[in-house]
């Protein structure tokens, strides 16, 4: 087991592989999403466990107590009869069929470094539009020199985050730190009606998770209220009504920056790729980095083992 090359280079791994032959250590199964980097980090962070890749054919399902994963099939998880918990490699979990997974805690990743990564992505686009880089790029095409079109300072731009949580708070803090006016809106915490929020913002950052209630939450009315603003979607693709977005871009909406899509990878035939007012990035706003994520996951496993619930436990209640 655990014969992944990247892992055997880790001194910690060879040490605890030897231990595992002598004891009945439990196994942490790691989704092989990236050629072994996650496996190596998990092995280094959990010297008390035997750590195996999900593709390892020799793993005994009865010894697996924890799974670290993004997208392992539910049928595979169902074979792990002694499973204690599932630790997610990312923040979102709408791709999981919760009903098909065993009744163990599922912990989504709350990694402060990922929140910073998303905040930096958002800030760079906010500045891009505040400093009119999109307009200057157009002017360069016609060799037009005009320095007087850009009197907008950070304080003049209101950035709104639609959706709450650790990441939303970090985006707001980061933008505020750079002088932008900020406002957050979530269903449970807001100071104005939703359409007023859209009307008050120059840039709306969509950070909604995908649930039954957030599907197409940004539609015709919200985009009309945003008027000539900018939409940045780093939440989930299906929270925006794509037809409404394309229609709004035919009207006053200035631009959209889309990092997430209803179906990923985005189809090569999607009109979003070639739209002059849309920037497409391939779901990279917040990157899951094992260097920062694995210590969080290891701490969650430690908490669970002493009977405490870590942050990020996913509720199995149906979404309202
Ligand atoms: C996500 C992630 O949930 O990448 O989008 O973690």
Layout of SSEs?
Elements: H1 5-8, H2 11-22, E1 27-30, H3 37-45, E2 50-53, E3 64-69, H4 74-78, E4 85-88, E5 106-107, H5 112-130, H6 133-141, E6 158-162, H7 166-177, E7 181-185, H8 194-200, E8 203-206, H9 220-226, E9 230-233, H10 242-250, E10 255-258, E11 278-280, H11 290-305
Parallel strand pairs: 1-2, 1-3, 3-4, 4-5, 6-7, 6-8, 8-9, 9-10, 10-11
Bound molecules: oxalic acid (OXD).
Question: Please, could you describe this protein's structure?
Answer:
The chain is an alpha/beta fold. It is 34% helix and 14% strand. The protein has eleven helices and eleven strands. It has helices spanning 5-8, 11-22, 37-45, 74-78, 112-130, 133-141, 166-177, 194-200, 220-226, 242-250, 290-305, and strands spanning 27-30, 50-53, 64-69, 85-88, 106-107, 158-162, 181-185, 203-206, 230-233, 255-258, 278-280. The strands form two sheets. It has a six-stranded parallel β-sheet with strand order 7-6-8-9-10-11, sandwiched between helices. Strands 2-1-3-4-5 form a five-stranded parallel β-sheet. The two termini are 43 Å apart. The model is unreliable at 1-23 (pLDDT under 50). Oxalic acid binds next to loops.
